[in-house]
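User: Here's a structure from my thesis project, written as structure tokens. My advisor, Dr. K., wants to see whether a designed sequence matches the one we expressed. Can you design one independently, without my sequence as a hint?
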């Protein structure tokens, strides 16, 4: 029988005492929200509680074993991805409204969420999860502390893998009141009206109050509030409010030349399905492996700032990887597979699961699904063997995931927890497009680099957008995550990076050009993508000259390191040639896109006009 008696404030005080929570502001926050959501119990969590919480989740059926030290979970079938249309940035300043950020009034949304959340944790445990979204000692540590309250135990387990979790972080705050108050209430998932006019789900970041209020989900970024809500939306706001840093949906990797001892770091933004995770976790191709090593720092978020030495620094605020399972295999991302081996503690979500053998499978893991259907359940928990003939619907959800810690990634950088971050040599952007974008083009001007990021896009389908060849723009890959307007965002970029006396080079990359006739990819991609990045570093250091074009400098074919790789001459020519006519068309689309943004800095318009004039 479920205990529906709400915990009392004296009970909460006792739990906090026993857990060693001495921060008075945290105690006040937890006690207040326990009174609002009405849980039956309160429990304070440390990372050391993981094994016990896993055991409890297995016993309760919230997790299933998926091999030794591996676990499987299944979310409600209507709760499988971020819901951008239900995700809100709220502040007290209407000037924070952007084209894409779903801005709303902070007081209005706070009051509405309070009403939705009231009493919704009845009979449940409220878990108090103190976390840090930065290595201890980081210059940005003051913006990294948070306390998530959640009524969902699997969410706690994911948070332990994705953030640094522990009560000790609360006692080391420079300002004891300066932490993100992050409240997650699952709600009655089957009766929230998902996708109807009565939809009750809202995922709100009240950015100027440093408060996150998410109601109506137990999945991913909707529920792991340290990740996107804090790590991107709140941090994006904090970065501008402080004037100190940028918080971006960027991957971060390191490249070492083992022969010369040189080391470079590259950060970059990519829209969905444009290869960001595969690049972040890449290895050197076999032919170059004796000379070059690639190290992994992060696949999803980077915070960037200018150090005392005038260089731009970056760090990954996360502690783990929340990776898309679909199409992850030995060819596309062997590093990811190595990070979810038995004993890693990885959690799989919404993949196919075999209840007899405890195996998991997803589309693309192997060429064909398992032939023996006995015991296999799809992502909804329905038996594959019971499907009607001809039913080829996916076994795993297209957004199925694996969660694992950074320490499990075999090529994680030795200094991934360095509080000072790592110096950034290049900031790259890349969207999936079958034409117009060459393999790599370097950009040496700050305003043109920011302009390129603001006009980043990936191909949209003709059916979705009604115009063949037009990109779906995703500025800096931050379209759903900006906490204020795009024009002010561009100005903040110019201000922060403009402080650097040794700025990184910018570049745009594209691994996805296709032959117009047979559709084959012109560049092999994956591990071979190290080659254009090496050229970029050589260009930055003046070792190669490249070929100047109106949109940047592209490699001369002889400048690319091609040892051990053969690409047909016609394909190489295509990926190192600019399609000027296509670009002239693109400039019209870009102008319409940029014209939406209020207060866009004149430097960005000047960059646009320069590129347009050079294209003729």
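Assistant: Designed independently from the structure alone:
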């Amino acid at each position: 029988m479920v205990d529906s008696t709400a915990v009392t404030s004296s009970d909460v005080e006792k739990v906090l005492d026993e857990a060693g929570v001495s921060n008075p502001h945290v105690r006040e926050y937890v006690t207040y929200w326990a009174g609002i959501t009405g849980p039956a119990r309160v429990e304070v969590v440390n990372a050391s509680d993981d094994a016990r919480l896993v055991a409890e989740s297995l016993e309760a059926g919230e997790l299933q074993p998926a091999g030794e030290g591996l676990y499987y979970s299944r979310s409600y079938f209507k709760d499988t991805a971020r819901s951008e249309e239900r995700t809100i940035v709220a502040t007290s300043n209407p000037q924070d409204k952007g084209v894409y950020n779903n801005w709303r009034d902070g007081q209005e949304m706070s009051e509405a969420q309070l009403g939705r959340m009231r009493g919704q944790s009845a009979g449940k445990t409220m878990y108090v999860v103190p976390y840090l979204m930065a290595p201890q000692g980081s210059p940005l540590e003051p913006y990294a502390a948070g306390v998530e309250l959640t009524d969902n135990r699997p969410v706690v387990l994911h948070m332990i893998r994705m953030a640094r979790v522990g009560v000790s972080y609360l006692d080391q705050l420079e300002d004891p009141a300066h932490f993100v108050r992050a409240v997650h209430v699952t709600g009655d998932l089957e009766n929230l009206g998902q996708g109807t006019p009565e939809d009750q789900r809202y995922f709100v970041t009240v950015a100027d109050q440093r408060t996150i209020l998410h109601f109506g989900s137990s999945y991913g970024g909707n529920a792991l509030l340290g990740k996107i809500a804090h790590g991107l939306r709140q941090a994006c706001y904090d970065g501008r409010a402080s004037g100190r840093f940028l918080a971006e949906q960027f991957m971060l990797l390191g490249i070492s030349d083992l022969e010369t001892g040189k080391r470079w770091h590259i950060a970059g933004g990519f829209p969905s399905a444009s290869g960001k995770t595969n690049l972040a976790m890449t290895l050197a191709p076999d032919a170059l492996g004796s000379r070059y090593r690639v190290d992994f720092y992060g696949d999803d978020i980077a915070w960037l700032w200018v150090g005392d030495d005038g260089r731009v620094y970056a760090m990954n605020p996360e502690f783990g990887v929340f990776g898309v399972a679909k199409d992850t295999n030995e060819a596309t991302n062997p590093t990811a597979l190595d990070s979810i081996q038995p004993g890693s503690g990885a959690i799989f979500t919404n993949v196919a699961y075999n209840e007899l053998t405890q195996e998991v499978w997803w589309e693309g893991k192997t060429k064909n699904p398992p032939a023996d259907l006995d015991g296999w359940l799809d992502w909804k928990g329905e038996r594959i063997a019971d499907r009607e003939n001809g039913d080829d619907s996916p076994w795993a959800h297209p957004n199925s995931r694996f969660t694992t810690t950074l320490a499990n990634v075999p090529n994680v950088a030795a200094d991934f927890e360095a509080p000072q971050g790592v110096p950034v040599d290049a900031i790259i952007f890349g969207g999936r497009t079958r034409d117009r974008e060459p393999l790599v083009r370097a950009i040496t001007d700050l305003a043109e680099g920011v302009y390129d990021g603001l006009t980043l896009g990936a191909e949209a389908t003709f059916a979705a957008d009604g115009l063949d060849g037009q990109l779906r723009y995703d500025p800096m890959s931050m379209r759903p995550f900006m906490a204020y307007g795009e024009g002010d965002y561009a100005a903040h970029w110019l201000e922060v990076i403009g402080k650097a006396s040794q700025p990184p080079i910018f570049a745009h990359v594209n691994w996805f050009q296709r032959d117009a006739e047979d559709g084959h990819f012109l560049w092999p991609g994956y591990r071979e993508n190290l080659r254009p990045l090496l050229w970029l570093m050589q260009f930055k250091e003046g070792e190669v000259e490249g070929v100047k074009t109106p949109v940047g400098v592209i490699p001369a074919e002889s400048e690319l390191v091609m040892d051990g790789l053969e690409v047909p001459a016609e394909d190489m020519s295509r990926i190192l040639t600019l399609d000027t006519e296509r670009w002239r068309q693109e400039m019209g689309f870009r102008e319409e896109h940029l014209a939406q943004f209020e207060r866009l800095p004149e430097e960005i318009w000047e960059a646009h006009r320069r590129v347009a004039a050079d294209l003729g």
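When you compare it with your expressed construct, this may help: The CA atoms of residues 8 and 194 lie 33 Å apart.
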